[in-house]
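Appendix B. Raw example, untouched.
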Amino acid sequence: MVSVLLEVAILVFAALAVYFFMAAKRNKKTKIKAIKISKRNSYFKGMFLATLNLLTIPYYSGLNIMWNASGWIKFMFLDIAIFVLAAGLGTFSVLYLYVFYFDKLEHKTNRFEKNANYILSFLMVILLFITVVRVLNR
């Protein structure tokens, strides 16, 4: 039964390799057209992201309960100030990195998108080779 499945897998991997290679060959560069985005849509996206930020409240509450139980934090002014400063600096640094690398990542995404079918075709050839070796060694 396993040998039959491996033989079927050879056909499937070969077909997928050919399909992805042909799809990559006919992939033509498309012009990017501007899309009109309504301000209302952006407002609701912002409200959704703000709602997701509320999910950190249970996380930090659980973290503070754990730290209080283990004796790491005593809820004195210095402990609270250090926690707030660390959380604020962590958030600032992550958001700064998002802004700083956004443009670079946008250009790399286009390059990956252009070559994704070649990558998938290459992966299918590797799986095809591994499966053929497994069938021949049985």
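End of appendix B.
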